[in-house]
Amino acid sequence: MKKIYQIIGLVVLMICSIVYDFQKPEVVKKNVVSLSYVILEGEFLKNGKYEFEGEKTIQELVDEVGVSPKANMQSLVMDKKVEDESRLYLPSLHEGAVSLNHASQEELMTLEGVGEKTALKIIDYRQQQPFETIEDIMDINGIGEKTYLRLREHLCL
Question: In this protein, which residues make up the domain named Helix-hairpin-helix DNA-binding motif class (predicted)?
Answer without folding.
Answer: 106-125, 135-154
